[in-house]
User: Fold these one by one.
Assistant:
Number 1:
Amino acid sequence: MNKIKKLAIVFGFSIMVFALSGCQRTITGNETADKGLDSFNAIVAANPEKKGFHSALQHWGFALPTGEKFEWSKDMSANKADFAMVMLADPLVEAGLDIDKLDKNEWLYEPAGKDDSGVDLPNRLIKPYNVSDKKEVSNGSEDSMRRLLKTDTNIIKYHEGQQHYRLILGDNEVQWTEKLGINDADMIFVLEAKPLIEAGLDVNKLEGSGWIFREASKDNMGMGENPDQLVKIYDISK
């Protein structure tokens, strides 16, 4: 075999390997989003029993230790809740929140019932976020998240000091750790407090709810200016 043929074979094989490896990568088009996606997928993969799928909503969901859930859409055209922070309503109601005073275009309330598997569900307060109405055909939970982040890579940021990725959903956030085990805050829900306070929530009555009131500041641990917020931290590793 002459040198030209050898070079052609080697070159062709290199292209094939590159193409195959490229097909296997989860690419969002942004390095931070790529790494955030990898970290999120690792958390879910380490806790497969906490992942589920809601066929009616076309949502993937990840159950959190105290009954809350983080959900993301399989198909952005299915509804307006491409991401959803699903929270226990009763602790907030017990702290004064009047569900009827919340903006129904911004918040959803689901009374207690049963899920697709017949499991009992509590009263839930849901904060949805719409990324796009684009029709998508995704393949599994990881591909669904990849497509959401690829549609808007600006919604994910990285905080080096906290080693957290921040999924910015309007005035609210879902944060997750870069790697399980590096601290006790594996995942965090952050809500803007103002609409809840205006609907009757008394932040002095949150004891025992798991929620912490964080006052507005000019520099929130290096993450920039923040309004009054409600924060709930989840330790998934224990």
Number 2:
Amino acid sequence: MKRDEIILQLASADWLKQAVKNIGGNLSGDLYQEFFVVVCSKPDEEIERIHADGYISWWCIRILVRLFHGNGKQKFYREFRKPSDSLPEHLDDLSDEYNEDEYQRQLLALKHDEQFYGRVAKDHNRADWYVRILWEMYSKNRSMKQISRDSGINFREIQTIINAMKDEIRRQYDRHTN
């Protein structure tokens, strides 16, 4: 089967559309289009060989997953999934009411409060430095799974400590605002 026929077959395949919906969620339309951009950029021989070997469905799923959970190199990830440092335009009016100085002051007060880490550490029978390092790693990465992979610490352990820190932040915030 020729490359163009294979691509047309993929474009009309219901299993592929369902896979894109499952993987992409609300970004499935954009993921579907980007998938075909990637597939069409592959050499004819590669697509024909993969189809002849019977691995076309596995290959398609692999491309979809890599596009969606990309590491920053894929265009789809950079444009649709990567967290942005700026607010969307429809939130610009709300940002005028936001006081960055006050927020930073409260954040620093919470961050440097040794008792803050101490309470969570004491409640969970952990050392202060352990809780502090986990929280700092989480603040930088925003991914408990990545921290678990990088450090070798059990995901449940990280989740327990981070959720306890979030609860403590909420309690501290409520105390400061009331």
